[in-house]
Amino acid sequence: MRLVFYGGGDEDENISLNHALIKLVKSNNPVVTYIPACSYDADIEFSYFARHFKKFHISRMINFPADIPFTDILLREVLKSDIIYLGGGNTFYFLKTLKEAGLIPKLKKYALEGGILSGLSAGAIIMTPNVKTASFPSFDCDLNEEKVTNLSSMNLVDFEFFPHYKNSIRYEDELKKYSNKINRPLYACPDGCGIILDQDKISFIGKNYCFYKGKKILLKAA
Amino acid sequence: MKTSLHHNKIVPKKICHPYDQFEQLNGSHPLKNHVPEAYVEYKVRQKKSGKVYYFNFALAKQLGLLEEDHPEKMNAGLEKKILETFNIVIINEYDNIHNIKHPPGTIKENTYMATRYLQLQHPSKQGKTSGDGRSVWNGQVTHHGITWDISSCGTGATRLSPASAKQKKFFKTGDPSISYGCGCSEKDEGVSSSLFSEVMYLNGIRTERVLAIIEHNNGLAINVRAHPNLIRPSHFFAPLKQNNYEYLKKMYDYYVKRQKENGFWSDYPKDEIAGYDYFLAKMANVFATMVAQFEDEYIFCWLDWDGDNILMDGSIIDYGSVRQFGLFHHEYRYDDVERYSTSISEQKIKAKYLVQTFVQMTDFLKNKAKRPIKSFEHQGLLKEFDKIFEFQKDKNLLFKIGFNNSQVAYLLHKHRKMVRDFRSSFSYFERIKSIKGIKKVADGINWSAIFCMRDILREYPQIMQFRESFLTNEEFVEIIKSSYATRKDLLLNQYRKQMISLFQDKYMHMVKLVAINLKKNVKHILCELTMRSSVINKYDRITGDAVTIIVDKILSIKHGPDEIYKIMHDFLYFQNHDPSKIRKLERHKIKNTKEVKNLLEIVRSYREGI
User: Fold this and answer.
1) Residue A104 to residue A112: CA distance in whole angstroms
2) What is the C-alpha radius of gyration for chain A, rounded to an integer number of angstroms?
3) What SS3 state is found at A3?
4) Which of A32, A64, B135, B343 has its CA at a distance of 20 to 30 angstroms from the CA of residue B335?
5) CA dihedral B474, B478, B482, B486 (to 10 degrees)
6) Where are the domains of chain B?
7) Which residues of B364-386 are buried (b: 16+ CB within 10 A; e: fewer)?
């Protein structure tokens, strides 16, 4: 499996991660699909996204909002893409949308069969076993306006993911507390930082942290 | 004697208060001196009740009423100034006849004008009784070299209302026995105009804009509008119909002077006859371009021979019957009780007739004798109008596909036939109607279109990045079908199949031509089209139906002017269809709040409506 987790931030902050993402691609003329978390401003987000990835000589891109009706014609092309990039936004809304569109199993299958799946913030959380990390800390969490109760997600990895991490006491306390409740590592990535999973090899870009059983560990960058 | 259009404007000698600029809006206006026949004058009094419901901070800054760095927040001083300036009501003929007394301290020093213009709903059909029936002009302001006219709607019943003309009497402002003619305006009209006009403005469509809404009891309001020149064709057509050369000439001179002073017509010739020709060329260009844009953006704006619902530069004014359709509902007609409106496809005929009337008008100005309008039916300018219209239609479609300026210019210049062929297939699908026939809708009748051409323009370049072959007929129809289409509507006959093939063949041919011209590969061009088209043809598009529901929603929100402004501002961020503006949008400053999200959901639900 080849997965890339982005902690957040804009195109300029993520230049190193984007380089790493592109390096995973084997095709000479790759296709990148952008799935925004919400379609309302998807055109704007896609425009930024596409302009940025054109710098990497990507000339085939698809904008694929999942919360508006789509045809099988386009979906087939999406699932043939070299990279699928899940955008950032409200995690609960995104999860609900992907589930309602029947895309969770399809994207999972895509990743398991060798497609490169990447996600920024909400998009990254979606790739983990569940989206609980979107609901805390109270001072910086996604509102669950959709009232999503089943928080299980793609479950592609055996860790949880916390984006937009800020290295402060109040974040640290919340994450330590949460890590005590779970039996898997919780990776916390600030904006511009992230994780690359290339088959069995995991590497980190930027200053990332792991919270495990109430302990905080600074991870060594690649 | 040469006079400046601004000569009677009150310019504060010394700026000592941040809101002094409002004081220019005191009823003074150069039209009063230049064309005394063009208006009726009223004394006005300050209203006691009323509060600011909405204030367009961005527009106020554009007008120079507020400093650039003024916070987008209301304060007591600003609210007081807005109310002092705009919360007024005229002392009309009814008040005078009935000797109604008002406290002297409430009566403003200057008079305010209600302008005269032609309106077809008036019995005389000559503009002798018609014009601003419930509006007065507050005045004008100049900022960064542009002079803006400001007028307010809902400031009392004037003698120019249809009710006064028909019933031959004067009405008390707010008379509940009449609706259209009582001199009042409603808050929902103001909110609707404000929302709609800002969406139009954002997307490059010329329009009046709403500066403020002053709220009164029972849903009534004073709605303040602004535009660089609030003169309508009907302001000219009134003296024309009346054969009044002097009045018409003064009106013409006034208008040209303002256009020149605003820098819009800086190349206007010195020679009088050449000037008329310049004016006509401008009118043909303005109205042909405007009507092509209305058709292509599916904007329904009730145009008629009186030239009432439009400004001289093609800007939309009076949003009462204006709609934007999600599909090309070209059979929709607004029901105005006494008659049905024109349809969107008939707008061109009406716009062309307006130009023909301008030809008659300038002939009158040149020769001081009016000839019948029929004599100008075969005038060369009308052929020019058709040419401009066709050119603009081709151009608009290329932009809608997603080609950029230089690519559009290249295709229009070098491969016009190809563009026309593509347009014929595009228009074919755009105009197909449901087998269900004509249906009654909330405010008129409609015969629904069934295909959403925005969807194919958005999806096609994405899909063709990967496909070596065209879409199948079934795939094509799957993408363009709307919720109005029944199974029977979607049946594929031979002609429809041919048109699908023509659409795809010409589309890809144009892409290849652009790729060859730019020495780029086809996939690269398709990717560019994908990016631009996803903005231009985004899934959600505001329609007249959506505006109606959104206005109700906004009115139900119990917030002050700051919050209303913020909600409207944030909502507008999502209504941009211009890819060139993407970089300028403040992406991170916009909060998709629950209220804004609710409004966006409404836009989505009604995206195919009227």
Assistant:
1) 12
2) 16
3) strand
4) B135
5) 50
6) 20-227, 244-321+328-388, 402-536, 544-605
7) bbeeeebeebeebeebebbebbe
Which B residues 422-481 touch A at CB under 8 Å?
459, 462-463, 465-467, 471, 475, 478-479
Give, for B496, the enclosing helix (H) or strand (E): helix B494-518
Give how far the C-alpha of residue A21 lies from the chain's centroid of Cα atoms, to the nearest Å: 12
**Chain B positions in Cβ-Cβ contact with residue A92 (cut-off 8 Å):** none
Q: What is the C-alpha separation between A34 and A54, in angstroms, rounded?
A: 13
Phi, psi at A64, each rounded to 5°: -130, 75
Q: How far apart are CA B92 and CA B157, in angstroms?
A: 7
Task: Write the CB contacts of B14 (distance below 8 Å, at least 6 apart in sequence).
Answer: none
User: Which residue is listed with tokens 């710098």?
Assistant: A55
Q: Which amino acid is at B489?
A: D
Cβ count within 10 A of residue A104: 17
DSSP state of B371: P
Nearest CA in chain A to B605: A68
Which phi and psi (to 5°) does residue B131 adopt? 150, -145
Closest CA to B549 of B185, B295, B54, B196: B196
- Residue pair A1/A111 in contact by the 8 Å Cβ criterion: yes
Q: Which residues in chain A have their CB less than 8 angstroms from residue B604's CB? A: 68
For residue B58, give both structure tokens: 């961005």
Alpha helices in B297-346 (DSSP H): none
Find out whether A150 and A118 touch, Cβ atoms under 8 Å: no
Q: CA-CA distance, A112 to A91, in Å (whole number)?
A: 22
A65 contact B CB<8A? yes
One CATH from 3.40.50.880, 3.90.950.20, 3.60.160.10, 3.20.20.140 for A2-218: 3.40.50.880
ipTM for this prediction: 0.88
Q: Are B252 and B141 in contact (CB under 8 A)?
A: no
Q: Global pTM? A: 0.91
| CA separation for the pair B213, A169 (Å, rounded) | 48
Measure CA of the first residue to CA of the last residue in chain B; give whole Å. 52
Asked if A80 and B600 come within 8 Å (Cβ–Cβ), the reply is no
What's the burial of B225, exposed, middle or buried (CB within 10 Å: 0-12/13-18/19+)?
A: buried
> A191: which residues sit within 8 A by CB, 6+ positions away?
A7, A8, A9, A13, A163, A164
Domain boundaries, chain A: 2-218
For residue A72, what are the contacts with CB-CB under 8 A and spacing of at least 6? Answer: none
Q: Do B534 and A43 touch (CB under 8 A)?
A: yes
A128, A153 contact by CB (below 8 A): yes
B107 CB within 8 Å of a chain A CB:
no
Structure tokens given for B206: 């010329």
- Burial grade of B46 (CB within 10 A; 0-12, 13-18, 19 or more): middle
Instruction: Return the sign of the alpha-carbon dihedral for residues B195, B199, B205, B211.
Output: positive
Q: What is the DSSP letter of B208?
A: -
Structure token digits, residue B533: 């088209």
Q: Which pLDDT tens digits describe chain A residue by residue (222 residues)?
A: 999 999 999 888 999 999 999 999 988 889 999 999 999 888 888 988 998 999 898 989 999 999 999 999 999 999 999 999 999 999 999 999 999 999 999 999 999 999 999 999 999 999 999 999 999 898 888 889 889 999 999 999 999 999 999 999 999 999 999 999 999 999 999 999 999 999 989 999 999 999 999 999 999 887
Residue B538 with chain A: CB contacts under 8 Å? 42-43
A59:B524 CB<8 A: yes
Whether the Cβ atoms of residue B135 and residue B114 lie closer than 8 Å to each other = yes
Name the residue among B311, B343, B350 with its Cα closest to residue B149: B311
